[in-house]
Each structure stands twice: as C-alpha cells, then as structure tokens.
Amino acid sequence: MKARVHITLKPGVLDPEGKAIGRGLAALGYDGVGEVRQGKVVELDLADTEPQAARDRVDAMCRDLLANTVIERYEIELI
Amino acid sequence: MKARVHITLKPGVLDPEGKAIGRGLAALGYDGVGEVRQGKVVELDLADTEPQAARDRVDAMCRDLLANTVIERYEIELI
Amino acid sequence: MPDNPTKTQGAQTPVADTPTEPAVTADLAAEHGLNAAEYDRVLATLGRTPTLTELGLYSVMWSEHCSYKSSRRHLKKLPTSGPQVIQGPGENAGVVDIGNGQAAIFKMESHNHPSFIEPYQGAATGVGGILRDVFTMGARPVALLNALSFGAPDHAKTQHLVSGVVAGIGGYGNCVGVPTVGGETRFHSRYNGNILVNAMAVGLADADKIFYSAAAGVGNPVVYVGAKTGRDGIHGATMASAEFSEDSAEKRPTVQVGDPFTEKLLIEACLELMATDAIVAIQDMGAAGLTSSSAEMAGKGGVGIRLDLDRVPTREDAMTAYEMMLSESQERMLMVLKPGREDQARAIFEKWELDFAVIGALTDTGRMTLVNGGRTVADVPLDSLTDDAPNYDRPHVPSEPRPLLRPDEVPAADDMGQAILDMVGAPDLASRRWIWEQYDHTVMGDTIARPGGDAAIVRVHGTNKGLALTADCTPRYCEADPFEGGKQAVAETWRNLSAVGAEPLAVTDCLNFGNPERPEIMGQFVGCIEGMAQACEALGYPVVSGNVSLYNETEGQAILPTPTLGGVGLIRNLDHRASPGIKRAGDAVFLLGETRGHLGASLYAAHALGHDAGAPPPVDLDLEMRAGGLVRQEIALGRLDTVHDLSDGGLAEALATLMLAGDGYGLDVRLPNDPDGQPLAAHAALFGEDQGRYLVCLPADRAEAFAHACAEARVPVERIGDTVAGPQLAIAGVATLALDDLRAAHERFLPTLMA
Amino acid sequence: MKSAVIVFPGSNCDRDMMVALEAATGRPPVAVWHRETSLPADLDLVALPGGFSYGDYLRSGAIAGRSPVMADVKARAERGLRVLGVCNGFQVLCEAGLLPGALMRNTGIHFVCRDVHLRVDNARTAFTNAYGQGQVIRGHVAHHDGNYFCDDDTLTALEDQGRVAFRYCAADGAVTPDANPNGSRNNIAGVLNAAGNVLGMMPHPERLIAPELGGTDGRGVFDSLVAALADA
Ligand SMILES: Nc1ncnc2c1ncn2[C@@H]1O[C@H](COP(=O)(O)OP(=O)(O)O)[C@@H](O)[C@H]1O
Ligand SMILES: [Mg+2]
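YS: structure for the whole thing
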C-alpha cells in the first residue's frame, strides 16, 4: 500500500516561498494569478495491508515527525 | 478557479530528502516503511474561468518556472 | 574477495555482452563520441569488436574531459615545480608546503554544462566534486571559491541562471560547512548560451599525511564507499566534451542531484579512516565515475584491476554493467585497502551511515576486467584507457593582433562624476554582496578576511598563519590578445594575494574555451597557456592543479576565452595583513606602478564605444615582481595596512573601493601623471587599466620613508593625495562624489536584477 | 564549568562551539554523539551547535530533534541543566519541544550570512548577564530558516515574561523591519524557556569571539554562563 501525505502551512502562516513563486510568475508575464501557496508531499511505501491501520500509523508518523503542527497541517491519502 | 500542481522527482533521480525522512521514520521505530519520496505542491488561485485554458496556462507555468523537467515531472489538478 | 583469482589471462577470457544489449558498430561508437579513427584504434587494441560496456569505457576515457586529448601537449608548457610544491598536476589536487609540517591542497574545476541545464544541481554538484578532489588527498576542506560567467544581464535566461547557480553553490557549501570566501562574477553576452561555473576548494593536511591515488599491492581489496549508484548523469563526461545545441536540454540524460549531507558524512568518515594506516590509495569518483577512478588508480599503479559489479551498491533495479561503469552518481569514493583492514574500515563507514562494499581486487595483469552476472563483460588493457588515449596536435592559428587604442579614440564623458558612478555600478564592477551573503563565509571560525576584499584570508586553524585565496581572469584581455591575457590572469591573482600581504605560493586553473577543433579557438588556448606559462615562470608561481573545459559553444558561438586562475598565498603572521578599506583620516595616498592611461580592452572603452576594442594592457612581469615584493615587505613589517590593487575599472574603481570598504572616511586626491610626469586625459587617468599598480594609504609621518623604500625597490610611485574624515571622494578638477552616492550606485545592480 | 556539545550527523559548527566554550571556560567540552542515550553526569551546560543536521531535510532540525540523545537533554533540562542552542541548535530545540514556536524559511527566501545588530532584551539571564539591559551588540547570522514564528498567545507570553533574549535591531537599537534579516515575529533573535535555563538563538555568538574574526560581542554569551555558574 502507498500513502501520500500533503503537508501545507496553516492558513494565516506566512508562506515566503509561495509568495516568491507568485512574484516569479508575475515577472514572466503570467497575470491573474492570485495567492500562491507551497507545500510538501511525502509518499510512503507501506507494508500494511489494512487501510484503517495504515492510516492510523501514517497519522502517528505525521504527528511524530512528518509535520510540525505549530505551523503545518496535513492530509493523508491512501493509494 | 484553483490549480494544484504536484511536482515530484522523476523516477531514478536521487531523492536525498526522501531518503533522510525514511531513515528518520525508521529511527523512531516505524518499520515496514519502504521507499520514501518527497515532492512539492504549489497551489495557485487563478482568474481563469475556462478549465482547458487554465490547464494550458498552468502547464506553461510549469515548464517556464515551477518545474525543471530535466529532473522533475509534474501533474496538474484543477479544483 | 578470496574466491576471485587475481591473475587472469585477459585475452583468453571469453568476453560477452549481456544478451539484450545492442551490437556495437561504428555508428554506435560515433554516437558515443568516438570518431572513425578512434573506433579503429579500439578494434586494433582489442583485436575484436568491443562489448557495449567496453565501448562505454573507451568513450568516457577518451572523451576530451578525461583524456585531455586536445590540451595535453600544451599543458606541459606550464611550470609546475618549485621548492614549495609537494605535489603538482596529475593527482586529484595540488599540494604545497606552508611550513610547520603543514600543506595546503587545492584545485579548481568546471561544471559549466550541467549548470546551464539545471543551475541549482549543476552548480551544487560542481562544489561537491571539487571538495572530494581535496579531501580524497587527506585534507580537511577549509575554503571554497567560485568563478562565475553569466550572459548579458538583460538576456532572458540570465536571472534564472544566476539565481539557481548561486543557490546551488550556497546550498551545497553551506550544508557541508565549508566557508565560501571568494570568487568572481562577470556578465557578458558571449556567455548567453553557455555559462561558466568554476569552483575551487582548498584544504589543509599534515604534509606527511597526504593520500595518493596510485594503486599498489596485487590482491589488495578494492573498496567502494559513499552513496549508492543510480542512473545519474550517464555520459556526463562526454556531455562536457561536446558542443551544445538548442535541443540539448531535451535530449541530454538526467543531470546528477547532489546530496551535501551525505558528502559531509563522507568527509568525516574518510578523514577518520585516514587517521589510521589502512588506506593504500584513494580516489573520488568524479566524471566517468567508477570507470575513471578504477582505471586511473590501477593505471597509475601499473597493476591490473578486477571488479565484480554485482557487488556495487545500487539504488535502482537491474542496472547493467554499462550503466554502473558510466554512472556519475555523486558522493562516492574508491579505495584500495591494505589486506585485512576491511572490517576496520567498514565499521567507520557504517557508523556514518554510508555504504561500504568490497567490489574487487588488484591484479597483476595490467588489464581492467569487469565481471557481472557471471560473465566477463569487459577486459581491456589499462594503458589503452589512460596513457595511450588519443593525444592530438590540433591545428591552431594565432589571434589577429589588435591595434593600440589611443585615449583620444575613446570619447571622454561630459560628466566625469557620473561616469565614475556608472562605472562603479556597472554589471562588471557592482557589489557582489547579493551573491556572497547567500554563502556561509564564516563557518569554521577561521575567516579573517571575508568576501569583498582583494583576496579572502582563512586562518590555519590553531595557528597565527593564514591562507590568502583569490580567483581571477579578464576574458576581454584574453580575447584581444590570448598571450597577454594569459599573463594578466596569473599576474592579477598574484597581485591580489600580494595586496593582502600574502606570499603567493602557487595557482590552480580552470581553462574554459570553445571548440578546439576550430584552429582560431585552439589558437586562443595555446596563446593563453603560453602567456600563463611565462608569467608563472617569471613570478616563481607554479601551477599545481587544474582542469580544462572545451567545447563551450552554442550554435557556433564560442565563449570568451576564460582561463580562470585560482591563487593561494601564505601569510606567516596574521597580525600583519592589509585590506582595501581606509582606516584613518590623514593618511597619505600613494599610487604604485606606472599610469599610461591604457584604455584598450578596458571596461570604460567597452561602455563608451559599445564594444570591446583595442589591445589589452601589457603586463611587465619584472615590475610586477618589484611592486608586489615591496607591498608585501611593507605589510609584513607592519608599516602598511591599507592596500588595493588596480584592475577592471582602473583608478576610479580603486578609489571608490577604498572608501566603500572603509569606515566612512573620504579621499582628497588628484589625478596621476604619466611616467614622464606629463598630465593624462582625465578619462584615461581614471579608467585606464594599466597593470601592476596598487593604491596604498599610510600615516603621513611615514610617507617619506615609504617613498624612499619605493625608490630603493625601483617601484614607480606618486603621492596623489590624502584620506580625510568627511565621506567624500574629491578628485581635483574632476569631480566630488558623496560616499552615500557611491554606495548606492555600487549596491544597486544585483538586487535590482534579481528582484 | 563542564560543558558538552552534541554532534548530530550534519552538524558543522560543533568545532566552532567547542573552541568558544574552551576559550571561555578554560576546559575543553565533551563531544556527545547524537546516538548516545544519556549525557555525561555533572554537566553545567549542554550546547547544540549550528549546521545542517540530517541535511535540514524535511524541516530544519526535525530529524535531529527526535534523535536518541534528545530524550536525556529534555529530562536534564527539566531538572535545570542549562541548554544553549545556536542556529540549527535552536531549530532542534523547537522541533524537540524544549522551546515554543518554529523557525521557518527566511522571508527573503535566500540563505543569509551577514553581521547584524542585536538588542539585548533581557540581560538578567544566565546567558546574557555579561551584557547591559538594552545594549546593542554586533551579531552574525548564517541561516536559511531563521524566521521565528509562534502564535499570538505564545508571543504575548514570551514578551510578558521577559523570555525574548535578543532582537534584531538597527545600529541605534530601534527594532525595525529593515533590521530584521529573516522576517521573525517582532524581530525575535533568541528566546528562553519558561524556567530560563534553555536559550535558543539564531545568531552565532561563537563566530564573534576575536577581533580578527570581526568582533568580540559574542563572548558575552559564554562569559555570562561562566559568571552565572560562579554565582550559583
Ligand atoms: N561568485 C562569488 N562568490 C564569492 N565572492 C565573490 C564572487 N564574485 C565576486 N566575489 C567577491 O567580490 C569581490 C570583488 O571581486 P573582483 O572584482 O573579482 O575582485 P578583484 O578585482 O580584487 O579580483 C572579491 O572579494 C570577490 O571575492
Ligand atoms: Mg583586487
């Protein structure tokens, strides 16, 4: 089984890299681009076979390491 | 309209970050985690209203700035 | 690997391809960059058709990048020895004696093509590669420099390339924890399609603990350490040896991705193992990876080598012998250990979480034998890969000499003050702060002179000695007159070292040129080398390491000839050193050397005329010796602490720099006269780029003694004014400029370009 | 004073920190490898040096913050051991939960290596008593992720309890946006835990300990620790 974890900055936390991308796009002439936010995806190959157990384990990994909940939130997708 | 661009390293390209995350998880006692790959997500607010046009424009942005197709590939999702 | 015989009868071993691989033909050889004559030579050497793996070996080992086939005979002209030289060219890096049983180890290398395709990773892996060249010899890396040539500031790709290259150099060096202390950066349209990224690394070791690459000891284990092998950058060496075309970015295989974290662990692990006596020979896997490292180690040692490729740590499935041998995965090293030391070494690498594998053994056959999946996939004489590689005497024609450019042929600015501001803010002279603030230049706690001066100074840890480091070249001069340009590049590094008070020890170089198959390009190459050779000879300043990068062309447009020189000097007592910033009001300001107002090939002429014109300024090596010697002597005696040499932008640039690097002081000066005491046109006096000059400031009460010392050393000198308390540059009869305006002009260019 | 410096894979200011500590305390600190499960006994200080532990992969300090030795660092800090984290060490302390908040990417996106001015916001701590209250000193930063973030409540608590040790400021001590090299909230350069025995700071005091290195203003941090111990 595979899990994909999407990690994004919490709303309200300033995202300097997203902003820089936005400026870069504007400089290249792409207009009409509003807010740009950047995040991370971590893809994991898992030995688990049971979806709920897998999800719980990945959730624990997120809280333990993958995300810093002071600034980030995460979403888990099993594939 | 909103677009979400997933940017990942092409298969076979070294992903030191993914490797380090994998090691970090193993050190915390999470076993059964196979390969870990890490990528980026960029979320864009777009003024476009027509999906195909929006997709084409985001595709151009990817080739121009968001991704380096020498080592990365990307996937566009409209939401 | 006791089950592997160390003696093989090469010619009798059945050599076979993996069944699924394409048959080797002359066409396939051509696609691998081997021309018809070269392929015939392979056939004759082997007496049979090569396997695909063998074709791969020849293609990378005979590439320009690895074989130096166009440059070898000319590189021999460079002086490479001297009492200070412990190891000259031919090893991974050059080694010079710095006294007290210590040695400085350094080298410069290009990563031009990969940086154009993927600026961040290209530049980053360039730094990683040059660091390995240095620590593979037993040195702890202590400093990095980089010499960058970008296209015109307004070219569509420039901003993106600057941003990626600078981030990549910083990203790698900062993470590894080696300070990036200097370099140079230029912008010129001739680099629009082919930027240059040259990186230099400097390390320190005990002079009696240097590690070399020549393998020895039949039966000794061959060990692979570091990161795993993937399909990265296969054919990087051949790529670095071919011209670019518009679609290269599409066709080329993947460039390598660097992992500075693994490199940091590799440095620590290698240095830990080097503290034992387990290593016989060691070499990093650079261009052409496992192929060149194994061939060169065994070739140099005059032994044979047998590798069992099934034991190579790989990170991808089903890699073929061809792929493993040609992979340019980063952060890997090859070593030959003393027998029985495998476990000791393994423990160290495992502690640092790095791969470790015994992948073969030395043999007595003089051949490289590769085994994979039970098959012998290659078996070739080592000499044919290394010493007997092609060696060409390419036709070369000298460049057309350019006429002298008289000052009256160059328009003088109406507003000389504005001209000075324009010059100080021009792309070639503007502050590089935006770049070096992205580099950690103080990590390791020994950076005594940070970027921004003539040469950076890094203290030898735990002592009061320092290494002075600089990288320089003036490609405009090399284009106008390769011989004088080659001389000048050497002299400029020498001058930059002298200006901080360092005794110049030796140089490394990175020779970047266009397509050597064009006689006019080959002429530039030969001219520059001969000029460099003359200067190095005259200055007692040998070349101890270097690198050649040819085929820097896109669509037939070659780069400017760019022989980048990296100079290393020694300051024996750091209490006595100099820097360009004005330190006090009331100092006498002297100009050393002769000012003739030479505007040929100058930045000013290029701006005023809209194109490069005229012969470059000649370099008088005898005067260089005398002036540099005097400056160093006065600094060493503690009598001189404010020095700046004159180069691009001439006197105007130097006056501005004295103020910009100072603590808010000003200058009250007049223009110098020519050697006959006659006045010069203001634009010629201000912007002429006559060589061999220094601007110095010293307390007025010592002015007379200083002038006397100059006369004694036969160094022409003129007192041109004084330092003052007010933040103003006042040039009598020419202009008065506020320090704030100079600073604003100087700091504007890069932040604006990169915004 | 007996001190230890923790070495993570990828630490690169460990030697610099040891040099500074030895100069201030007169005795060489002990290097502790991250995989140790306990610190040496009778320590007076443990320092987490700068660098790129685990390559700063995932987030700066994230993987190192969970390495084996950190459990004992936490336990001993709770019992009052002084802990100093500089740069990557500060990031590790936040990730390990010894200090509140997080260090994010600099707002300017780039790595930044430069001298800055720092205002000593609280000179009554074990780490800052050698400075005057409100004194403006020279600091030196070299980081990519030095942008200190915390929520509003945490910020109020830090400021009300005197737990901001240093702020980035202009030469005259004014705390202005221009003087902020990384976008930190309220120009925060260093914070303390509630008990005052743990300090994390982005500027590198160990790089400014001699005139030839560009200044001596960093010495105060180490001298303060020595003085605090003598007073205790
Ligand atoms: N790419 C770079 N990286 C680091 N430092 C640089 C770079 N480019 C220029 N510098 C620094 O900027 C200063 C000016 O460079 P340059 O004009 O080449 O000096 P000089 O004329 O004395 O050789 C030097 O201190 C140099 O080290
Ligand atoms: Mg200079």
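YS: worth flagging: The longest helix of chain B spans residues 51-66.
IM: good catch. Also The helical segments of chain B are 16-27, 51-66.
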